[in-house]
Amino acid sequence: MMPPDRPMLDVVDLHTRFRTGDGVVRAVDGVSFSIHRGQTLALVGESGCGKSATALSIMRLIDPPGEIADGQIRLHSVDDNPPVDLRTLSERRLREIRGRRVGMVFQDPMTALNPVLPVGGQIAESIRAHRPVDRRRAWHDTIELLDDVGIAAPDRRARQYPHEWSGGMIQRALIAMAVAGRPDLLIADEPTTALDVTTQAQILELLQRLQREFGMAILFITHDLGIVADMADDVCVMYAGRIVERADVRTLFTQPAHPYTQALLAALAGFDRSPTRAEPIPGGVPHPLHLPDGCRFHPRCVLSRRLAADGRRETAVVPRDRESVIVLRNCIRPVDGRDIGGPSLRPVAAGHDVACWEANDGAAIGIARP
Amino acid sequence: MTRYVVKRLLLAVPTLLGITIVTFAVVRLAPGDPAAMQLDGTPGGDSARLHEQLRAYWRLDQPLHRQYAGWLARLVTFDFGHSFVDHRPVWDKIAEKLPWTVGLAVASLGATLALAIPIGVIMAVRAGGWFDRITGVGLYAAFSVPNYVAAGALIAAVAVIPIDWLPISGAISDDYDGLSVGGRIADVVRHALLIGICYSYPALAYQARFVRNNMLETLRQDYVRTARANGLSRCRVIFRHAFRNTWVPLITLLGLTIPSVVSGSVILEVMFNWPGIGRLFYASIAQRDYPTVMALSVVSAVLVLLSTLAADIACARADPRIHDAQ
Amino acid sequence: MPNNTSSAVETGANRTPRRRRETQTYRTWRQFRRHRTGLFGLSIIFTLMLIAVSAPLIAGNQPIACHFDGQWHFPALVDVANKIPFLSFVLNKSKPFRFAGFDAKTAVGDDESAIWPVVRYGPLETTSDGLARPSREHWLGTDEVGRDLLARLVHGAVVSVKVGVVSMGIAAVLGVLLGGAAGYFGGWTDALISRLIEVVMCFPVFFLILSIMVWIEPDINNVMVVIGLTRWTGIARYTRAEFLRLKSQDFVAAAVVSGAGPLRIMLRHLLPNAMSPLWGTIAFGMAQAVLTEAGLSWLGFGVQWPEPSWGNLLRSAFEHRGVAPAMIAGPSVAILLTVLAYNLVGDALRDATDPKRAATP
Question: Total structural domains in chain B?
Fold first, then answer.
């Protein structure tokens, strides 16, 4: 058994970009995080912030014109073998990882299965891709798996085609498929977004049960903070291709330090049973080709605006190169004119990192919830 | 599935009737008494006898709808009347030419698919690479060269530099009857080579491009990503998952292009002197052999109808959503 | 747990401000302009049309302008003008040039100033021995009775251009009307028209056309009409599907409420929205029409000898392949280029109107 403090997966400084006709989109721009065995890490953010690109990068499913430009994706093994870097792994070795050690569940179940093949056949195919079993054995295991994820009459159902199944059922089948190889890590990319609320709850329950049974780690991608509170141990909040806050789920909900996280929480009306109304975040996600200078969130940031209104236009002092210091003008750029590309993550407390020049910790900033 | 096939067959019945009505209309709506008019300029002087034959076949003394009904009843028994030119039953004439055309079409279809599918798949898998680019331009050029233009150029080239083993005319050599079985096959293949190439290359170009574009589309689908995320081999992902979904539109395309392939057979068969129904059609028109012309129209339309029917059923077999949707 | 989280988080993606509403056709053209191969095809087609219209200025035995008998004459220009309908009533060639027996080439001597076409031979003019090889006199050689092949090729372009435009014009009108009616009215109309489409599609076009051509005079105008009458099915199928899709949309309901009749709704509201993808189909159809006409002429059922058309030029080259194999080059290249040009334009149009394809090369 691996010591719990050793991570299952280390993502270090991941950069994924897409070349488009109009320029290069940096979908993932220097993202780092770790997932520990048996734990759930939630990746939260608005759509278009690079969550899915991060997940696909880990699976190396980024197709041209996209590419993983830089970084490491270290997958640790259960025994003491050295970790493998998925980014540089050959396609052949990668196939042994996909489905076997890392499983993945996607967002839209209605399009995630091949429409012209029976559901059971597709699951059996995945089983046989990883285990040297014959057709009958694989089919038998398929029925068992389907039964396990709660499909009634799996024998009959397995012979049907995807269009005869409901979205919730297909998502169950996809989960069965993803855990068929008993992976150490399951990546769930918004697995409940396309489902209705009751089905959502059932799928989440299923995931939690499977996690307990197999002891796998889950990378849970969602934009729904409510689900995060239920599912996650640790949380990374992403904004415009970067992680802006990283903390355990309790800290994040009680002491959010980044103004963006605070805004997200404020948008969750009544979460802390305060009588306030849900407050939408002003503005929208920046265009990926025209990111703001400096902190990418500042055009929508309440804190930044308030500091400017207070007249503290030249504000924070940020250490750079350990010795030199630079002065920022209102979250945008240093006064000497060189762009330093936005704030990087720094600890504000043990196990709590924030990418904001102004935040000290949640309490210190003291932004009043509107 | 059975229900779908039955339904599809029933739907073909009105189309079949429509085909006969159109053909009937083309004959009967022509100005004047068809018997009298058709005999204008008919070679051979036996016109009184021909006239009687025609009147009897078309039942010209009866009202129009009875004429049509009678004609239809005779069609069912393959009675298309007698040829003006050699007075043989029209169906016999067609029956001896049909295998040459159908055989050539089937052989060409097989060869085309056998080449177009791998080419298209490789182009899609390596989209944007050198193979894709070069082949893409080549296929586009091939598709744009009309096959009778290419056939003309080929025949002219062979006329200038004759190649002994590559005949450009006919389907069999003079000494065909004296050849062994293997020799006969080789003989027909040699004769069929040039016309077969001209028959096939536009279809090959079109199908390969079609397979490529459809594969590109399916390779982008979510289920392909699922298959890859589950660690399936590249080969399995491409053929079992992506190609299966390209297969259905490809069959549909084949069904839709069959009429134009049959159309193309007229000029090619005349050029290469191939003894198929295309050349028979041309000869019958040149000789104003109306019974044969009408019979060929009906027969070719019915053949096309049958092949599109086969294509539809094949589609439904390949894609469960089609017959479930009905 | 309140469920409005997602909506709150997803709100307000910033979009670029909406552009002025532009017509579909204009949008198609804007997309088309970026397509280099499409523009190349279009330029070939325009060149071809220019050649067809000004054929007497390029190849003919009448001077474009000449000073003859103390007067200026423009016989070739008048020939061009006479191709424009109704203008022939107004314009007439001046005196000696309008006589059939008058040979401008000998009558207008070298001492008199004259501007001649590039090719100084008419398409029907016998000027040398038959089947001459290409030379400085006859750039592409001559046909079996000694007519200049280049002159015949240039004049043959008229037929190809006309066939493409006229027959597809007929096919488009028929296809849009029938397909539109089927899609808009549905029910029995649809069932009937759909069957008709299916029946016509079953006949190999060539067979159908040839069957009809047996009964009527083989003549270019008849050929164009018959091609048009048999080529409308693709357009009809497309229009039907498009009208079916569009008629359930709100703007149609709005038009119905405001009292518009079915014809007005179909022509003013549905057609403009369905039209832009049709252009691609029409361009491909033009390529097919050119091919069909050349094929018919090759078989002897189209343009009648000795009038020139690419199809019968190809036929005469085919017949004389043993003696003059080079004859085949001219009409082959002409047909090929025309078909290629229409196909390129068709592809570009399809790309321009298909949002899914717009991204792929």
Answer: 1
**Residue B8 belongs to a domain:** yes
Instruction: Tell me if B232 and A97 make a contact (CB, 8 A cut-off).
Output: no
Q: What is the count of residue pairs from A and B with beta carbons less than 8 Å apart?
A: 88
Beta-strand ranges (E) seen in C22-173 are 65-68, 71-73, 114-115
Domain A1-101+183-254 has CATH 3.40.50.300: yes
Distance of CA C285 to the CA centre of its chain: 9
In a domain, residue B19? The reply is: yes
Calpha distance B203→B212 (Å, rounded): 14
**Cα–Cα distance for residue pair A272/C182, rounded to 1 Å:** 60
User: Could you check whether the bond before residue A343 is cis, i.e. omega within 30 degrees of 0?
Assistant: no
* Residues of chain B with C-beta less than 8 angstroms from the C-beta of A111: 221-223
Contact residues for A263 (Cβ-Cβ < 8 A; gap 6+) = A279, A281, A300, A302
Enumerate the domain spans of chain C. 151-353
Angstroms from A230 CA to nearest CA on chain B: 26
Q: What range does the domain containing B86 cover?
A: 2-31+80-325
- A14 phi, psi to nearest 5 deg: -75, 130
d(CA C6, CA C57): 71
Residues 106-135 of B with CB under 8 A from C: 128
Give the whole-angstrom CA distance, residue B51 versus residue A196: 77
Residue B152 CA to residue B198 CA, distance in Å, equals 10
pLDDT per residue as tens, chain C (361 positions) = 344 433 333 333 333 444 445 566 677 777 778 788 889 999 999 999 998 888 888 877 777 777 777 777 777 777 777 777 776 676 766 666 666 666 766 766 666 677 777 777 777 777 777 777 777 777 777 777 778 888 888 888 988 898 999 999 999 999 999 998 998 888 899 989 998 998 888 888 788 888 877 777 777 888 888 889 888 998 999 889 888 888 877 777 788 778 777 778 877 778 877 777 788 889 999 998 998 888 888 888 888 878 888 988 888 888 888 777 788 888 999 999 999 999 999 888 888 876 554 443 3
Place of tokens 């290469």: B272
Which residues in chain B are contacts of C141 at CB distance < 8 A? none
Residue with tokens 């996607």: A106
Whether the CB-CB separation of B91 and B79 falls below 8 Å is answered with: yes
Amino acid at A171: Q
Rounded distance between C-alpha atoms, residue C198 and residue B16, angstroms: 10
Cβ contact C135:C144 at 8 Å:
no
Q: Which two tokens stand for residue B16?
A: 């079949």
Closest CA in chain C for residue B151: C318
- Residue C260 contacts residue C206 (beta carbons within 8 Å): no
Closest partner residue to C202 (CB to CB) among B141, B144, B259 is: B259
Match domain C151-353 to its CATH number in 2.60.40.1120, 2.40.37.10, 1.10.3720.10, 3.30.200.20.
Answer: 1.10.3720.10
Asked whether residue B127 is domain-assigned, the answer is yes
| Burial (CB count <10 Å: 0-12, 13-18, 19+), residue A139 | buried
Q: Which amino acid makes up residue B157? A: A
pTM for this prediction: 0.82
Query: By the CB < 8 Å criterion, does B223 face chain A?
Result: yes
CATH code, domain carrying B262: 1.10.3720.10
Shortest Cα distance, chain C CAs vs residue A269, angstroms: 7
Is A104's CB within 8 Å of B319's CB? no
Of the partner residues C203, C332, C336, the one whose CB lies closest to the CB of residue B301: C203
Nearest CA in chain A to B246: A116
Which H or E run includes C163?
helix C149-185
Closest C-alpha among A129, A109, A120 to residue A172: A109
Domain ranges of chain A: 1-101+183-254, 115-176, 257-342
Residue in B229, B231, B318 nearest the CB of A116: B318
